[in-house]
Amino acid sequence: MSDSNTMQLPSISPTRTIAAMRGVQAGREFYMAMCHMSFIAKHLPYPQNNVPADKVIQRHINKARIPKIAEYLVKYYDDYVLPPIIASIDGEIEWEPLSADSENMQVGILKIPDSADLIINDGQHRCAAIQHALQKRPELKYETLGVIFYIDRGVKRARQMFSDLNGHPVRTNQNINATFDSRQYLPQLTKRVIENSALLRGRVELFASGCAIGSPRIFTISALTKSNRVLLDGIISQDIETDAAICSRYWTVLEENLPEIEKLVPETITAREIKENYFYPYSIALQTLAAVANQLIKESPDTWEEQLAGIQKINWRRDNNEWEGRAMSGGRLTTGGNHPAFTKNFIKKKLGLPLSEDEKKLERQLARAKKAANV
After folding, report:
1. Pairing of strands 117-122, 94-97
2. In the predicted model, is pLDDT for residue 261 greater than 90?
C-alpha cells in the first residue's frame, strides 16, 4: 500500500527496479538509491554536445575531464571517493514501500519503466568516467554510488535544477588542496620539508589563498610545492628522504643568503616587513630561484650550494629598478608572459652563469622593449 501522493502506474515490464529511500523537498518527492556502477554506466549515459540549444539542460561536457576521473577510479580503486549523482526521471514511476507501517513507508522499491528517460542533472562527468573505468577495471561494476532521483516529467525543471545546484559553488583554493592531499608525492614532500625547517615551520599558509596582512606566515604551501616541483625537475628520486634532503639544503642556502630572512626565526623582523620590502617571498621569485638551483644541481652537483650562495649579491628589494620588465611591470609584481624567464636570466647573470641561446634571444627582446619604452 502507498499513500495517495505517490505517483502510480500499473506494473510495467520491462522496468528498472531499485531499492531506495523516499523523501520530500519543496513538496516534491525524490528518491535516494545505492546503484551499482554497472547500472550507472548502462542507464545514465552522459549527454552528447550536439544537442539542440532548446534541449540543452546543463553545460556542455568537458571531455578532457573524463579520463582524469576514470584514471582516478582505476588507480585508487580501493581508496576512492565519489559524491552522489543527481538525475531526473522524465516519466511516471511506481513506488512499493517496504510495508504499510508508516515508519517504513519511506523505504521501498522504486520501479522506473524503460520508457522513462533518465537525465543527469549533476554528475555527467562522473557517469562518463565510470563507463571508461569499467573497461579497465570490470570489478568496479559491483561497487555502488549514491544516486538521487527527482521526478521531472517533460524535463520542465531540469535547467532550473542545474542552476540551483551549481549557482553557489565554492571552489577550494590551491593551498587547501595541497595541505589535504595525502596521495600526491610533491605535496607530501613539501609538508615534510616544512616540518623539518625552523624557518618554514609555522610560517607557511596552509589554508587561505594567500598570506593575510599582519600574518606571521610569509609563504604559501602551494607556492612552495610549485617551487619544489621546479627544483627537482629531472632529478626527483621519489624517495621522500632523499628528495627532502635536497630541498632542505636548498632552503638552508636561501635562509643564509637572502636579506633579513634569517631574522624571522628569532622574530626580530616580521613577515609583513619582509613582504613589503622584498619580492623573494613571492611565487615568481621562488620558482625562478628553484629553476636556477635545479640547473646548478644538474651541472655542478658538488658545488651547487656554493654557487647558489651568490644570490646574496643581488638587490632583492622591490624598489630596485633592475626588476622592472622582469619580475615587475609598472612597479607591480607580475608572473605573466616571459617575466619568469626574464627574472631567471637576471639571477643567472648575477651568479655569473652563462645564458643559453634562447635566453640570450630573450635578453635582446627585453632590451629592445626597454629601449622602446625608454626605461
Report:
1. unpaired
2. yes
